[in-house]
TrEMBL record, chains A, B:
Protein name per UniProt: Methylenetetrahydrofolate dehydrogenase [NAD(+)]
Lineage: Eukaryota, Fungi, Dikarya, Ascomycota, Pezizomycotina
InterPro entries: Aminoacid_DH-like_N_sf, m-THF_DH_NAD-bd, NAD(P)-bd_dom_sf, THF_DH/CycHdrlase, THF_DH/CycHdrlase_cat_dom, THF_DH/CycHdrlase_NAD-bd_dom
Organism domain of life: Eukaryota
Molecular function as annotated in GO: methylenetetrahydrofolate dehydrogenase (NAD+) activity; methylenetetrahydrofolate dehydrogenase (NADP+) activity
Keyword hit for Chloroplast: no
Length: 313, 313
């Protein structure tokens, strides 16, 4: 009588990306010219070049223009300022690492708000943490841009119906418990904040500690607060979590799958496989092994929005 | 900064019933005559009369015919047999209690399978527990009828998007933990079985004990199994549960809301309020205070299906 195989649904980023691309293509129909993304490559890291080429390919396949500007890192600041004021440029992407992390952050803040399709400007990041969803909170016409990788995870959770559309916008993760493994400034921490702002109870796990991001009982708070969970580890978080999202760099790390709640939804955003794919299928209801293809579509989506805002503004 | 009010969405049965009624009305368009439901009233319980009148009203408001046959209980058996073979009768409903519980069960089994719109025939109940979804498992043309109240709860959970349509049909509650309070043969136990057959981990709680209904790791089993949870009480079940469904008769019983998981979905199927409505809104993301109006639409839906099967067969 019993089936032999576990019932885990593996969802590939490609399929999720396709449904988002349809939206993007529909948007492109309505505009006069192909939006132009300019990439600045001043990084010595070969992975940066790979990512740049991949961006270019995806842009061209999907009706966007891409122009890669390879240059010495000393010329980068001026080149960004020129692109900022060039009306033919719709979006700017800079490939890191270039200098030190601190100086790279300085560079990133040079990109004008209107052309920052990665959503890394301080104003955007501030709005995201503060749960301010529009640049013009009164009129609500200009959405504040969200950083691409965390937004890609959200789009995936929407696709997987983890966001419950019966609940009001802004509260659609109410009742969900999510563990996010890794608390980097680039993805892990903003992601935990975004999910908690949407109503989830989020455990943000890093090497040293566990923090809970949450809007309080009855979601009474307008934005999330962060509480330390002293003594907590994955052993406390994973058995409670409906959704587990992991992005630990390096080949060695594996999520302890035996701690997962039966039927958990598991998403990997690391470039390595944080879940042993055989073991995770024994326990998870849904498993998303990688998210890169969604991230790049989210970038195109931001580029389209940025182009349209420019036309209107 | 903080809002004062908790963010609980109260969903009324009426709204859920409306969306199901649209389906029913669309089905009525396609047939030649109004389906006829015959009700047999031989019960001395005034509540039976109230329910009968309410059935009649709902039938007539929604394009069905209803005929109430009030009779002595000694004449009931023959009357059911006559209705069974009368081609103008599409569905039969008998209002209980009449005799002893045991004899009432005997009466219920007299109603022909084709006209049993309440889904109470042994064959239907057997199929439900065994997770057999069709009367003809090979051809899959005739759906096995599900009992109205448990089915109403399922329709509510579908409406509330607790069933995740990204998962394959039959597994759409995979990853959900549900507590069902009350294990009556009429609603509580079949409901626990139905939810577990659809992939949920269900804690079925009664005065004496807690049982877990579940299809095992990776939902490998084709149908649910039942495991005793010795020593368990609501204190163990409620903090684990995404969904809490309560149907305890009597005015006194209240679910201990302080044990609920933050953001739980709470559904009351008792005719009394098992949840203190003020307190539950502090903790729940969604609260459904009553389900009666959905149950009756489910009955109409079964009646329509029964009429159409007759026309085809």
């Amino acid at each position: 009588m019993a089936d032999e195989k576990p019932n885990c649904k593996v969802v590939l980023a490609n399929n999720i990306a396709k449904s988002l691309l349809e939206e993007v293509h529909a948007g492109l129909q309505k505009i006069d010219r192909k939006p132009l993304l300019v990439g600045f490559l001043a990084s010595a890291d070969p992975a940066a070049k790979v990512y740049a080429d991949w961006t270019g390919k995806t842009c061209e396949e999907n009706g966007f223009q891409f122009e890669l500007r390879t240059l010495d890192r000393e010329d980068l600041e001026d080149a960004i300022l020129v692109a900022n004021t060039d009306p033919s440029v719709d979006g700017i992407i800079v490939y890191y690492p270039i200098f030190s992390s601190r100086q790279d952050q300085y560079i990133q803040q040079l990109v004008s708000l209107q052309k920052d399709v990665e959503g890394l400007s301080h104003r955007y990041i501030f709005n995201m943490y503060q749960n301010i969803r529009f640049l013009d909170p009164e009129e609500k016409t200009k959405k504040s841009v969200l950083p691409c990788t965390p937004l890609a995870v959200i789009k995936i959770l929407e696709y997987l119906r983890i966001y419950n559309t019966i609940l009001p916008y802004g509260n659609r993760l109410y009742g969900r418990t999510v563990t996010v493994i890794n608390r980097s400034e680039v993805v892990g921490r903003p992601l935990a904040a975004l999910l908690a702002n949407d109503g989830a109870c989020v455990y943000s796990v890093d090497i040293g500690d566990v923090q809970q991001f949450h809007r309080g009982e009855g979601l009474r708070k307008r934005r999330h607060e962060v509480v330390e969970k002293p003594g907590w580890t994955l052993e406390n978080c994973l058995p409670l979590s409906d959704v587990v999202i992991s992005g630990v760099p390096g080949e060695k790390y594996k999520v302890p799958v035996e701690l997962l709640r039966e039927g958990a939804v598991c998403i990997n955003f690391s470039s390595e496989r944080n879940f042993d794919s055989g073991k995770v299928k024994e326990k998870a209801s849904i498993y998303v092994p990688a998210i890169g293809k969604v991230t790049i579509v989210v970038l195109l989506r931001n580029l389209l929005v940025s182009h349209c805002a420019e036309q209107d503004g």
